[in-house]
Amino acid sequence: MSFWSSIRIAASGLAAQRLRLDVISNNVANAETTRTENGGPYRRQDVVFQAITARIPLTPAGLAGQPGTGGAPGGVEVSTITTDDTPGPQVYDPTHPDADENGYVTYPNVNLVVEMTNMLSATRSYEAGLSVIAAVKQMAAKALEIGR
């Protein structure tokens, strides 16, 4: 695997985790939104990742990073952003403008504890990707130093 392939794989992870953090922050920001454009409360969203498989043959051209027929890892990408359709909690508050005929308000299905846990996980994954890039950079610098 080349220097650039390693950087590209790590960068794909950084981009995916950044989008995940954006979705999580959107969930937290809308944790109390009882009315959306579509009607009803906000629905929690989640990011689904999938692996990217690069096709690199074990030939000199493939080692140079040109596409081929191998199955080397190629990183990660966001395949979709899903909407969680589980019902949110209902709270009795007949004075709320979004209360139903029985006085209950349906709140978003966002659990702040879950969102904060997901945010910590995404942050740690992002930091791991940065560490990979730093390690690859350090190895390349050492290889250049040895070559001198």
Features of the shown structure:
alpha+beta; elongated; 148 residues; two-stranded antiparallel sheet; 45% helix
How would you characterize this protein structure?
With 148 residues, this protein is an alpha+beta fold. The protein has helices spanning 3-29, 60-63, 112-147; strands at 45-54, 72-83, 90-92, 104-106. The protein has a two-stranded antiparallel ribbon. The protein has a two-stranded antiparallel ribbon with strand order 3-4. Helix 1 (3-29) packs antiparallel against helix 3 (112-147). The chain starts with a helix and ends with a helix. The mean pLDDT is 88.
Approximate strand percentage: 15-25%
Write out the strand line-up for the largest beta sheet, numbering strands in chain order.
1-2
Oligomer: single chain
Mean pLDDT across every amino acid position: 88
Number of strands: 4
CA-based gyration radius: 22 Å
The biggest beta sheet reads: 2 strands, antiparallel
> Globular, elongated, flat, extended or rod-shaped: what is the shape?
elongated
Alpha-carbon distance between the two ends: 22 Å
Spans of 5+ residues with little confidence (pLDDT < 50)?
none
